[in-house]
Design brief:
The protein has about 325 residues and is α+β, with helices and mostly antiparallel strands. It contains 10 helices and 10 strands. It folds into 2 domains: about 150 residues, Beta-Lactamase; about 140 residues, 2-Layer Sandwich (Alpha-Beta Plaits). The strands form 2 sheets. The chain has a 6-stranded antiparallel beta sheet. A 4-stranded antiparallel beta sheet has the order 8-9-7-10, with helices on both faces.
Length: about 325
């Protein structure tokens, strides 16, 4: 049996998936109607909307299976997310990658599989819409086109979820998306005894930018600050616009020295932006930083509140 490889963009892919807050959620009619339609149109016993998490494939919608998830390392969908097109297995017993797979040799006795990758609006592949049969079969070109059409419909529904967790102006996670991602991350840090720090940012004199230069320039300043945050922090860090001119970053496996270095790089990046700004204002920030301690921080909200209070104290002291 061949285990599916890990995509090269796995960190970004998982970050996008978890930001949707869809894993382990209740069934929804908008996804269930697609799997029912796929089952009927292709005359198969099983149809799934499958989302590939770190160690499992979890079924947002499932017709024909009594379980909601299976291990990723035996999944067909784990192979599907590695490509752009429909992943087709006409007879798993004739394919050395799957012939001895426990999903083939035992329940649900997969013989035929066809899965189409499902992409988020940012291009990351989150999972598949797939159809499964217990007998070998093939698909014609028209069938492949139909499966692609159903997958695009599932992508539209995932995009609707994405809009609820992303900030439209900056394309960063919003507060809801940040709390979902940070909750998963802190759980891992707790289990693996890894450090984490939450940084809460507030732009200095942002109201003056809006008042003196208009809201369009205020929006440009917010986008500028968010871009510098993304450049400074690592891909594994979670960067979000919490509200208005407030931003948050959850940095994992970072020492106090490394966090201080990141803040210096942030200031240097803003200094460069300010030097090239033709308008008469300077972007600056106040920040509160809190080290995660599972004994004192029961939730992401606890960290946000403490970091916000520290930020406000710092801002007031410099006023």
């Amino acid at each position: 049996m061949q285990k599916p490889a890990i995509p090269i963009d796995e960190v970004k892919r998982l970050r996008t998936l978890r930001s949707l807050s869809v894993l382990d959620s209740d069934p929804e009619e908008r996804f269930d109607r697609l799997t029912r339609l796929a089952k009927r149109m292709f005359d198969v016993p099983i149809a799934l909307v499958s989302l590939v998490d770190e160690n499992r494939q979890w079924f947002k919608s499932c017709v024909g299976l009594p379980v909601r998830e299976t291990p990723r390392d035996i999944s067909f969908c784990g192979h599907t997310i590695l490509g752009e097109d429909v992943f087709l297995i006409e007879n798993a017993l004739d394919d050395e990658r799957f012939a001895d797979n426990p999903l083939v040799t035992g329940e649900p006795n997969i013989r035929f599989y066809a899965g189409c990758p499902l992409k988020a609006p940012d291009g990351n592949v989150l999972g598949t819409l797939c159809i499964i049969d217990t007998r070998p079969r093939s698909l014609e070109a028209e069938d492949l086109s139909l499966l692609n059409d159903l997958a695009r419909m599932a992508e539209d529904e995932l995009a609707a979820l994405s809009l609820a967790t992303l900030d439209e102006l900056t394309s960063l996670s919003n507060r809801r998306g940040f709390e979902a991602l940070a909750s998963h991350t802190l759980d891992l840090c707790r289990r693996m005894h890894r450090s984490a720090s939450l940084l809460f940012f507030d732009l200095d004199r942002f109201k003056q930018i809006n008042d003196n230069f208009g809201h369009a320039e205020g929006d440009r300043a917010l986008v500028c600050f968010s871009n510098v945050l993304i450049d400074v922090f690592r891909e594994s860090d979670i960067v979000a616009r919490i509200s208005g001119d407030e931003f948050a970053v959850l940095a994992t496996a970072s020492s106090a020295v490394e966090v201080e270095q990141m803040l210096r790089r942030l200031q240097a990046g803003l200094d460069e932006e300010n030097a090239n700004n033709p308008l008469d204002y300077q972007l600056g920030f106040s920040v509160g930083a809190v080290d995660y301690d599972p004994q004192f921080h029961a939730s992401v909200s606890d960290l946000l509140i403490e970091a916000d209070n520290l930020m406000y104290t710092s801002k007031k002291a410099r006023a």
